[in-house]
Structure formats: structure tokens, C-alpha cells
Design goal:
six-stranded parallel sheet, 12 strands, elongated, Rossmann fold, alpha/beta
């Protein structure tokens, strides 16, 4: 099993087994890697918003006839009491914030901040694993270094103590970051949630266990499996 990490954070959690870091050089580079390393199958476990890598994997696997499985986190779904505004992009989310927000938790990651810097009347709490370099110029902002999962009680306290009236986030799905949505529902905090980008139509599973079964079936035949941005590599194979 080979795990491929993007290398966007300084101290990522290292999966077991062989690990490579960094890009492949687009579709052609990934196709060459699959050929040169005799890869028998690929698991696309990238973040739901890593659209470019998802399409590169689909095209490279199609070109090399390598089976590809998508590990797909189910999206978050609006619950009774949620005050959601859905947006198709960061720019649309920023436009919604400009109309209705004053104190905002930006839970987008450090690469998605630029569209919000012109909102001089809004105070932002920017939560990310690492600070952006350089930090975009906000009129009023605080950076909060943090890495999930975030407990529900901590999210409640954050919204209360910082007087947050709006959260901006991506519809990433999963449990690690969902507590903020529960806390927002309880406190009447609005959520501007960005919809996922289009991804290629692929065979997909929703759980790590199901992906592990697929990986194990191929590994048992002697094939090498590449996990792209993988959390799959944490699963011991027979």
C-alpha cells in the first residue's frame, strides 16, 4: 500500500506503510506514476473539495485501465432549526456574509480567505491548522490555530464567547467538524455553507471499512494499491 499526501500542512499525520508527498504533475504525471510503479488500483480519498486531484485521478486511471474507487463522505444535510444559506463558491459566500453578518467564524482553511478581505464591516475569527503565508489583510480578524475533531461543548463555548453570529464553512461531511453545525443550530447562529464542486462519476463507498474490503480484495491478488490523499493506508492489510 502506498499513500500519497499533498504536503499542504507542515506536520501531517503519517499513515502506516510507504508514503509519498507532493503532486504528480497533473494527469500525465499520475498516469506515468501508475505505469512505472505497477499500480493495480487507486483509492481516491481526497477531501471533497479537492476537485482537481479527483479529476486527475479519474483521467489517469481511465488512460491506464487502473481501477479507481472513491471514498466519499456523505454530505451534511440541513436539519430542523438550521439557519443555512448555501453558496456555490467562496465569492458567493462572501456576498452573503456582506449582507447579513457582523462576527464570523471562517472555518474554510487558509487557502480560501481572499474573497472575504474586502468586508471591512465584519470581524472574522479565522480557524485553520496553520496560518496562511502571508496573512491576507483583514480590517478586523483574529487567527485561531486549531485542528479537529472539535468537541461539541468547545464549539458551543466558542460561539458564545466570541459572539459569533455566522459560520462560513464547506460542506465537507463527516463527524470531525460537524459539531459546529449542532452548536449553530442550538444558538441560532447562521451558517453559510459552500456546496461541493462537481466530481467525476465513479464507483464509491461511504465508509473506510467498505474501502478496506475493496483494497484487501486487490491486495490479496498481489496488486499494489495507491491511496491518494489517503486515510486508507491506516488500515492494516493482510
Amino acid at each position: 500500500m502506498i499513500s500519497s499526501l499533498a504536503g499542504r500542512t507542515g506536520t501531517p499525520r503519517q499513515p502506516e506503510g510507504e508514503v509519498r508527498t507532493g503532486g504528480f504533475g497533473g494527469t500525465a504525471g499520475l498516469a506515468a506514476y501508475l505505469h512505472d510503479h505497477a499500480i493495480a488500483a487507486v483509492v481516491d480519498a481526497t477531501h471533497p473539495f479537492a476537485a482537481r486531484m479527483g479529476w486527475n485521478a479519474a483521467h489517469a486511471c481511465a488512460a491506464t485501465a487502473v481501477p479507481l474507487l472513491r471514498l466519499h463522505r456523505p454530505v451534511w444535510v440541513r436539519q430542523n432549526g438550521d439557519l443555512w444559506d448555501e453558496a456555490a463558491s467562496r465569492e458567493e459566500a462572501a456576498a452573503i456574509v456582506a449582507r447579513q453578518a457582523r462576527r464570523v467564524l471562517l472555518a474554510l482553511g487558509r487557502q480560501d480567505l481572499a474573497p472575504f478581505t474586502s468586508l471591512d464591516h465584519v470581524w472574522f475569527l479565522i480557524r485553520a491548522i496553520e496560518p496562511p503565508e502571508p496573512m491576507p489583510r483583514f480590517s478586523a480578524a483574529e487567527f485561531l490555530p486549531a485542528k479537529g475533531p472539535f468537541p461539541l461543548e468547545a464549539e458551543r463555548a466558542l460561539l458564545r464567547d466570541r459572539r459569533i453570529d455566522t459560520i462560513v464553512c464547506k460542506n465537507s461531511g463527516g463527524d470531525a467538524a460537524s459539531a459546529k453545525l449542532t452548536a449553530a443550530r442550538e444558538h441560532g447562529v447562521r451558517v453559510v455553507i459552500i456546496r461541493r464542486p462537481a466530481r467525476p462519476s465513479l464507483p464509491e463507498v461511504a465508509t473506510v471499512a467498505a474501502a478496506a474490503d475493496w483494497v484487501s480484495a486487490i491486495a490479496n491478488t498481489g496488486g499494489r494499491v495507491l491511496g491518494v490523499e489517503s486515510i486508507i493506508a491506516q488500515i492494516p492489510l493482510p
